[in-house]
Protein backbone atom coordinates (compact mmCIF):
# COMPACT_ATOMS: atom_id res chain seq x y z
CA UNK A 1 0.00 0.00 0.00
CA UNK A 2 1.44 3.33 -0.98
CA UNK A 3 -1.08 6.12 -0.42
CA UNK A 4 -0.09 9.69 -1.09
CA UNK A 5 -0.50 12.13 1.77
CA UNK A 6 -0.67 15.87 1.07
CA UNK A 7 2.12 18.17 2.17
CA UNK A 8 -0.41 20.87 3.01
CA UNK A 9 -1.70 20.24 6.51
CA UNK A 10 -4.11 22.16 8.66
CA UNK A 11 -2.70 24.81 10.91
CA UNK A 12 -3.22 24.67 14.69
CA UNK A 13 -6.12 26.55 16.18
CA UNK A 14 -3.91 28.97 18.11
CA UNK A 15 -2.62 31.01 15.17
CA UNK A 16 -1.41 34.58 15.58
CA UNK A 17 -3.93 37.01 14.13
CA UNK A 18 -2.51 39.92 12.15
CA UNK A 19 -3.79 43.47 12.65
CA UNK A 20 -3.88 44.21 8.95
CA UNK A 21 -6.00 42.48 6.37
CA UNK A 22 -4.07 40.57 3.70
CA UNK A 23 -3.64 42.69 0.61
CA UNK A 24 -1.67 41.96 -2.52
CA UNK A 25 1.95 42.69 -1.67
CA UNK A 26 5.04 40.55 -1.21
CA UNK A 27 5.91 39.80 2.42
CA UNK A 28 9.57 39.08 1.70
CA UNK A 29 10.30 41.85 -0.81
CA UNK A 30 10.95 45.40 0.35
CA UNK A 31 8.76 48.04 -1.33
CA UNK A 32 10.67 50.03 -3.94
CA UNK A 33 10.17 53.25 -1.99
CA UNK A 34 12.08 51.79 0.97
CA UNK A 35 15.06 50.29 -0.87
CA UNK A 36 17.28 53.17 0.26
CA UNK A 37 16.58 52.16 3.88
CA UNK A 38 17.58 48.51 3.43
CA UNK A 39 20.90 48.74 5.29
CA UNK A 40 19.46 50.76 8.18
CA UNK A 41 16.63 48.22 8.57
CA UNK A 42 19.04 45.26 8.91
CA UNK A 43 17.25 43.45 6.11
CA UNK A 44 18.53 40.06 4.91
CA UNK A 45 21.65 40.04 7.04
CA UNK A 46 22.85 38.85 10.43
CA UNK A 47 22.94 41.76 12.86
CA UNK A 48 24.27 42.46 16.34
CA UNK A 49 22.07 43.55 19.23
CA UNK A 50 23.17 47.17 18.73
CA UNK A 51 22.38 47.07 15.01
CA UNK A 52 18.96 45.56 15.69
CA UNK A 53 18.12 48.24 18.25
CA UNK A 54 19.06 50.95 15.73
CA UNK A 55 17.00 49.22 13.04
CA UNK A 56 13.97 49.08 15.36
CA UNK A 57 14.23 52.80 16.11
CA UNK A 58 14.52 53.62 12.40
CA UNK A 59 11.64 51.30 11.52
CA UNK A 60 9.41 53.04 14.07
CA UNK A 61 10.26 56.41 12.54
CA UNK A 62 9.39 55.16 9.06
CA UNK A 63 6.10 53.72 10.32
CA UNK A 64 5.08 57.08 11.77
CA UNK A 65 6.06 58.90 8.58
CA UNK A 66 4.29 56.50 6.22
CA UNK A 67 0.72 56.84 5.02
CA UNK A 68 -1.94 54.99 6.97
CA UNK A 69 -2.95 51.64 5.42
CA UNK A 70 -0.31 52.01 2.70
CA UNK A 71 1.74 49.08 1.38
CA UNK A 72 4.85 50.66 2.92
CA UNK A 73 3.30 50.87 6.39
CA UNK A 74 2.05 47.29 6.26
CA UNK A 75 5.49 46.05 5.25
CA UNK A 76 7.18 48.16 7.93
CA UNK A 77 4.87 46.91 10.69
CA UNK A 78 5.57 43.32 9.70
CA UNK A 79 9.31 44.00 9.54
CA UNK A 80 9.18 45.72 12.95
CA UNK A 81 7.69 42.55 14.43
CA UNK A 82 10.47 40.49 12.85
CA UNK A 83 13.14 42.85 14.15
CA UNK A 84 11.78 42.54 17.69
CA UNK A 85 11.80 38.75 17.40
CA UNK A 86 15.36 38.82 16.09
CA UNK A 87 16.38 41.04 19.01
CA UNK A 88 14.77 38.64 21.48
CA UNK A 89 16.55 35.73 19.80
CA UNK A 90 19.83 37.62 20.04
CA UNK A 91 19.34 38.26 23.77
CA UNK A 92 18.50 34.60 24.38
CA UNK A 93 21.68 33.59 22.58
CA UNK A 94 23.76 35.69 24.98
CA UNK A 95 22.31 33.75 27.92
CA UNK A 96 22.55 30.29 26.34
CA UNK A 97 26.00 29.03 25.21
CA UNK A 98 24.30 26.19 23.33
CA UNK A 99 22.04 28.49 21.35
CA UNK A 100 22.52 27.88 17.59
CA UNK A 101 23.02 31.61 16.97
CA UNK A 102 26.36 31.24 18.76
CA UNK A 103 28.62 30.05 15.98
CA UNK A 104 31.03 28.54 18.52
CA UNK A 105 28.30 26.27 19.93
CA UNK A 106 28.41 23.90 16.95
CA UNK A 107 24.81 22.96 17.67
CA UNK A 108 23.52 22.30 14.17
CA UNK A 109 22.12 18.83 14.78
CA UNK A 110 20.22 17.34 17.70
CA UNK A 111 18.85 13.86 18.35
CA UNK A 112 15.79 13.90 20.61
CA UNK A 113 13.15 11.16 20.98
CA UNK A 114 14.50 9.51 17.84
CA UNK A 115 14.21 12.73 15.81
CA UNK A 116 17.28 13.70 13.78
CA UNK A 117 16.79 17.43 14.05
CA UNK A 118 18.77 19.68 11.72
CA UNK A 119 19.13 23.40 12.32
CA UNK A 120 17.44 25.33 9.54
CA UNK A 121 19.14 28.44 8.14
CA UNK A 122 17.89 31.83 9.29
CA UNK A 123 16.43 34.21 6.73
CA UNK A 124 15.20 31.22 4.76
CA UNK A 125 12.14 31.92 2.62
CA UNK A 126 9.57 29.12 2.70
CA UNK A 127 5.94 28.39 3.41
CA UNK A 128 4.50 29.09 6.84
CA UNK A 129 5.37 26.42 9.40
CA UNK A 130 4.12 25.76 12.90
CA UNK A 131 5.99 24.29 15.85
CA UNK A 132 4.89 20.69 16.42
CA UNK A 133 5.40 21.15 20.16
CA UNK A 134 3.92 24.53 21.12
CA UNK A 135 1.83 24.99 17.90
CA UNK A 136 3.16 28.56 17.62
CA UNK A 137 4.11 29.97 14.25
CA UNK A 138 7.78 29.60 13.31
CA UNK A 139 9.08 32.94 12.11
CA UNK A 140 11.61 31.19 9.93
CA UNK A 141 13.27 34.41 8.82
CA UNK A 142 14.24 35.35 12.36
CA UNK A 143 13.94 32.40 14.75
CA UNK A 144 16.26 29.45 15.19
CA UNK A 145 14.33 26.27 14.45
CA UNK A 146 14.90 22.60 13.69
CA UNK A 147 13.33 20.06 11.36
CA UNK A 148 13.55 16.27 11.58
CA UNK A 149 15.08 14.81 8.43
CA UNK A 150 13.00 11.63 8.82
CA UNK A 151 9.45 12.66 9.72
CA UNK A 152 9.43 16.43 9.13
CA UNK A 153 8.80 17.31 12.80
CA UNK A 154 9.43 21.07 13.22
CA UNK A 155 10.11 22.97 16.42
CA UNK A 156 11.60 26.14 17.83
CA UNK A 157 15.05 25.94 19.40
CA UNK A 158 13.46 26.80 22.75
CA UNK A 159 11.07 23.83 22.46
CA UNK A 160 13.68 21.11 21.85
CA UNK A 161 14.09 20.19 25.51
CA UNK A 162 10.30 19.75 25.85
CA UNK A 163 9.68 17.40 22.88
CA UNK A 164 7.29 14.58 23.77
CA UNK A 165 6.48 12.90 20.46
CA UNK A 166 8.58 9.97 19.28
CA UNK A 167 9.87 10.20 15.74
CA UNK A 168 7.58 8.54 13.18
CA UNK A 169 10.63 6.69 11.86
CA UNK A 170 11.14 4.98 15.22
CA UNK A 171 7.43 4.17 15.69
CA UNK A 172 7.03 2.79 12.16
CA UNK A 173 10.19 0.69 12.48
CA UNK A 174 9.02 -0.82 15.77
CA UNK A 175 5.50 -1.62 14.55
CA UNK A 176 6.53 -2.84 11.13
CA UNK A 177 3.02 -2.59 9.69
CA UNK A 178 -0.05 -0.38 9.53
CA UNK A 179 -2.87 -0.42 12.09
CA UNK A 180 -5.46 -2.59 10.32
CA UNK A 181 -8.33 -2.18 12.76
CA UNK A 182 -10.69 0.63 11.79
CA UNK A 183 -10.50 3.37 14.42
CA UNK A 184 -9.80 1.07 17.41
CA UNK A 185 -11.42 3.40 19.95
CA UNK A 186 -11.39 2.53 23.66
CA UNK A 187 -13.00 5.70 24.98
CA UNK A 188 -11.96 8.79 26.87
CA UNK A 189 -12.41 7.11 30.24
CA UNK A 190 -9.71 4.59 29.36
CA UNK A 191 -7.38 7.55 28.80
CA UNK A 192 -8.50 9.07 32.13
CA UNK A 193 -9.72 12.08 30.14
CA UNK A 194 -6.15 13.02 29.24
CA UNK A 195 -4.65 13.77 25.84
CA UNK A 196 -2.99 10.62 24.51
CA UNK A 197 0.21 12.54 23.74
CA UNK A 198 0.81 15.50 26.06
CA UNK A 199 -1.50 14.31 28.89
CA UNK A 200 -3.39 17.61 28.99
CA UNK A 201 -6.77 17.30 30.70
CA UNK A 202 -9.63 16.92 28.21
CA UNK A 203 -12.93 18.51 29.19
CA UNK A 204 -16.01 16.32 28.78
CA UNK A 205 -18.27 19.38 28.79
CA UNK A 206 -16.60 20.86 25.70
CA UNK A 207 -17.15 18.39 22.86
CA UNK A 208 -14.88 20.41 20.58
CA UNK A 209 -11.82 20.01 22.78
CA UNK A 210 -11.28 16.25 22.67
CA UNK A 211 -10.41 15.24 19.10
CA UNK A 212 -10.39 11.62 18.02
CA UNK A 213 -7.72 10.30 15.68
CA UNK A 214 -9.35 8.04 13.11
CA UNK A 215 -6.14 6.06 12.62
CA UNK A 216 -5.44 4.90 16.19
CA UNK A 217 -8.78 5.69 17.89
CA UNK A 218 -7.19 7.79 20.65
CA UNK A 219 -8.28 11.25 21.79
CA UNK A 220 -6.08 14.33 21.69
CA UNK A 221 -6.14 18.01 22.57
CA UNK A 222 -6.16 20.67 19.85
CA UNK A 223 -2.40 21.20 20.22
CA UNK A 224 -1.67 17.58 19.29
CA UNK A 225 -4.54 17.14 16.81
CA UNK A 226 -4.82 19.87 14.17
CA UNK A 227 -7.71 18.19 12.31
CA UNK A 228 -5.38 17.26 9.45
CA UNK A 229 -6.79 14.71 7.02
CA UNK A 230 -5.26 11.45 5.79
CA UNK A 231 -6.31 8.29 4.01
CA UNK A 232 -6.68 5.48 6.58
CA UNK A 233 -5.04 2.16 5.50
CA UNK A 234 -7.52 0.02 7.47
CA UNK A 235 -10.48 1.64 5.72
CA UNK A 236 -8.83 1.06 2.34
CA UNK A 237 -8.16 -2.62 3.08
CA UNK A 238 -11.60 -3.43 4.53
CA UNK A 239 -13.92 -1.03 2.69
CA UNK A 240 -11.91 0.27 -0.25
CA UNK A 241 -12.53 3.69 1.28
CA UNK A 242 -10.02 6.33 0.20
CA UNK A 243 -11.82 9.21 1.93
CA UNK A 244 -9.42 11.28 4.09
CA UNK A 245 -10.30 11.31 7.81
CA UNK A 246 -9.09 13.51 10.70
CA UNK A 247 -5.91 12.27 12.35
CA UNK A 248 -3.58 13.57 15.04
CA UNK A 249 -0.21 15.03 14.06
CA UNK A 250 1.69 11.97 15.28
CA UNK A 251 -0.41 9.64 13.12
CA UNK A 252 -0.15 12.00 10.15
CA UNK A 253 3.64 11.92 10.35
CA UNK A 254 3.65 8.13 10.77
CA UNK A 255 1.39 7.63 7.75
CA UNK A 256 3.39 9.99 5.56
CA UNK A 257 6.67 8.36 6.55
CA UNK A 258 5.29 4.83 6.10
CA UNK A 259 3.95 5.67 2.64
CA UNK A 260 7.44 6.78 1.60
CA UNK A 261 9.18 3.60 2.72
CA UNK A 262 6.38 1.31 1.53
CA UNK A 263 5.42 -0.22 4.88
CA UNK A 264 3.65 -3.55 4.53
CA UNK A 265 0.16 -4.49 5.68
From TrEMBL:
<protein>
    <submittedName>
        <fullName>Zinc-RING and/or ribbon</fullName>
    </submittedName>
</protein>
<keyword id="KW-0677">Repeat</keyword>
<dbReference type="InterPro" id="IPR047983">
    <property type="entry name" value="DEF8_C1"/>
</dbReference>
<keyword id="KW-0862">Zinc</keyword>
<keyword id="KW-0863">Zinc-finger</keyword>
<dbReference type="InterPro" id="IPR025258">
    <property type="entry name" value="RH_dom"/>
</dbReference>
<keyword id="KW-0479">Metal-binding</keyword>
<feature type="domain" description="Phorbol-ester/DAG-type">
    <location>
        <begin position="114"/>
        <end position="167"/>
    </location>
</feature>
<dbReference type="Pfam" id="PF13901">
    <property type="entry name" value="RH_dom"/>
</dbReference>
<comment type="similarity">
    <text>Belongs to the DEF8 family.</text>
</comment>
<dbReference type="InterPro" id="IPR051366">
    <property type="entry name" value="DEF8"/>
</dbReference>
<dbReference type="InterPro" id="IPR046349">
    <property type="entry name" value="C1-like_sf"/>
</dbReference>
<dbReference type="Pfam" id="PF00130">
    <property type="entry name" value="C1_1"/>
</dbReference>
<dbReference type="GO" id="GO:0008270">
    <property type="term" value="F:zinc ion binding"/>
</dbReference>
<dbReference type="InterPro" id="IPR002219">
    <property type="entry name" value="PKC_DAG/PE"/>
</dbReference>
Amino acid sequence: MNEQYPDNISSPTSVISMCYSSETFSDDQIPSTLVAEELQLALNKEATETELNKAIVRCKELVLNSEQCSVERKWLVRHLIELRLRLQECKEALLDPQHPRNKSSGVSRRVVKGHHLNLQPLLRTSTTKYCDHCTGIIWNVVQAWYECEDCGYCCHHKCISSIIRECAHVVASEKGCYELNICPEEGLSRQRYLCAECKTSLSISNVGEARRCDYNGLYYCSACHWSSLAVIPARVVHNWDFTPYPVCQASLQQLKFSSRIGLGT
